[in-house]
């Protein structure tokens, strides 16, 4: 089993390969991570791993707790994630390649990264200024009938977008061509659909592209039927533009 060790950035969301991730970094543990990544030569990839939080907070408490105002906030790279950080995170995450890391005057960072490959979390190390993890890369297998499934998912996704836009009385952006490569379709739809984090995590963990597409087809049909019978939906910016892929 081949493994790699990378800095670990836990979030309350799921990152998929090919999708762009903007980050506003202000906590010291993640500032330290970005300072370390900036030491990597420009010609090399500045990579870190993103995992969805199962239990915990991506922002550590920074003020005395309630109801005990004398309680001191947790400190350190694993603050908010318990005694065993490995248990606080979902097992499968995604490597992010930071194309831009810009330091602000206040010491924080603005980061623009892109998901690249799925990885399985094997261990978490909290001994340094930020979390690092041993990760096993996961190869994406196409599965059976991925091409035909991708076509069906794209049709269902277009119908879903139209229903979603109509429910919010907004126009649907159709200026960008949707991809036709099955794995790219599966990740784009998983990221763009309005689904909760556990459902998105299940899609990320799918054993192959075809399995992910089959599940997405079921979800899109169900969600479209639900939207059809709703008079209105909460405001969102999802249908005002397309998800950015690199």
Automatic annotation (TrEMBL):
Does the keyword Thylakoid belong to this entry?
no
Q: Which InterPro entries match?
A: Lon_prtase_N, Lon_prtase_N_sf, PUA-like_sf
> Superkingdom, according to UniProt?
Bacteria
Pfam families hit by this protein: LON_substr_bdg
Keywords, alphabetical: Hydrolase, Protease
Q: Which residues form a coiled coil?
A: none
- BP terms from Gene Ontology: proteolysis
Q: Which residues form the Lon N-terminal domain?
A: 6-224
ATP-binding is among the record's keywords: no
- The segments labelled Disordered in the record are 59-83
* GO molecular-function term, one example from the UniProt record: peptidase activity
Q: What is this protein called?
A: Putative Lon protease 2
The taxonomy runs: Bacteria, Bacillati, Actinomycetota, Actinomycetes, Kitasatosporales
């Amino acid at each position: 089993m081949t493994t790699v060790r990378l800095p670990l950035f836990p979030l309350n969301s799921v990152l998929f390969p090919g999708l762009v991730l903007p980050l506003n970094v202000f906590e010291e543990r993640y500032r330290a991570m970005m300072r370390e990544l900036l030491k990597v030569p420009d010609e090399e990839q500045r990579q870190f791993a993103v995992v969805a939080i199962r239990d915990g907070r991506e922002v550590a408490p920074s003020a005395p707790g309630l109801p005990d105002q004398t309680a001191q906030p947790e400190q350190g790279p694993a603050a908010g994630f318990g005694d065993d950080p490995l248990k606080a995170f979902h097992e499968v995450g995604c490597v992010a390649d930071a194309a831009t890391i810009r330091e602000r005057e206040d010491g924080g960072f603005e980061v623009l990264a892109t998901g690249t490959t799925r990885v399985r979390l094997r261990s978490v190390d909290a001994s340094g200024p930020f979390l690092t993890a041993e990760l096993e890369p996961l190869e994406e297998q196409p599965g059976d009938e991925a091409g035909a499934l991708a076509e069906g998912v794209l049709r269902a996704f277009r119908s879903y977008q139209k229903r979603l836009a109509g429910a919010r009385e907004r126009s649907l952006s159709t200026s960008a061509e949707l991809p036709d490569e099955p794995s790219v379709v599966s990740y784009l739809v998983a990221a763009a659909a309005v689904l909760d984090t556990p459902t998105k995590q299940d899609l990320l963990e799918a054993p192959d592209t075809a399995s992910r597409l089959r599940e997405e087809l079921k979800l899109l049909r169900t969600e479209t039927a639900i939207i059809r019978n709703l008079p209105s939906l909460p405001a969102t910016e999802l249908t005002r533009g397309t998800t950015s892929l690199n």
